[in-house]
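Problem 12. The chain below contains 325 residues. Write out its predicted structure in token notation.
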Amino acid sequence: MIPGFTSRRRFSDLTEQEVLALAISSEEDDARIYRSYAEMLRDDYPETAKIFDGMAVEEDGHRAALIDLHKTRFGEVIPLIRREHVAGFYARRPIWLVENLGIERIRAEAEGMEKDAEAFYMRAAQATTDADTRKLLGTLAAAEAGHQERAGELEKEHLDDDALAAEDRTAKRQFLLTWVQPGLAGLMDGSVSTLAPIFAVAFATQDTWTTFLVGLAASVGAGISMGFTEAASDDGQLSGRGSPMKRGFASGIMTTVGGLGHALPYLITDFWTATVIAIMVVFVELWAIAWIQNKYMETPFFRAALQVVLGGALVLAAGILIGSG
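Solution.
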């Protein structure tokens, strides 16, 4: 074997004792994951946190039962084997990835954890010809199915319609504050603030490549500026606006996108073709901003359209006039 290289064992090569040890370590890991979910959600989603607390307790109970079974069949010493040691064994998404998902995705992730484990044990049980091993794997599959049923019971116990509606409102508000609001501000800034310099250069030089380079520089520069400004303006602890990193990325990326939308047409070499397409893109961007304001910020569509389209049209006109002069 190459030094420093550790091969993963196939599930079919594990002994019954190792399969049982693997199940014990997996139950322990899952209990830890559920408790991490609970702590992560406790402040904003207390009822869902209670569900994960209950699921962690269930995992502890199953782990204890599996340990008792191991003591009966194989003795006190449990082999050290974890899911990452076994090729093809179901994996778990790292907590630091899941914490960036919405509440519904986290609930679905937990449900998927139980389904993955049940399906794996069922497939493994069907593949073995040893009666004792088949019985053991069937027991594990039934235990995972029991987890799903218990999760449903806990959801009914803690998440009535009022609690679910309250958590949904909290999730929507958090989504708006963390992603939509800074993203919308960035899109507005990128779409409107770059209009004047891009079209001024376009009409002053009638050089499409120069215009594209100016538009690219203005868009990227504005995106970097908006991203850092948003991230540095508020750490989100007191305002509840969420991670400054997430808000910074949302604002910076959408600012860049807003500017690039009407800069990209100037990759076309014919000046008037590029300009007509760029102006059409501008009005699509402005109407998109008005639609987002109406859908997510509940701004009346006519008022949003009037403010955004009229303001953008004035900036566009200013850029064209300055460049033509």
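Discussion. Confidence is low (pLDDT under 50) at residues 1-5. Students who got a different answer should revisit the alignment rule from Section 12.3.
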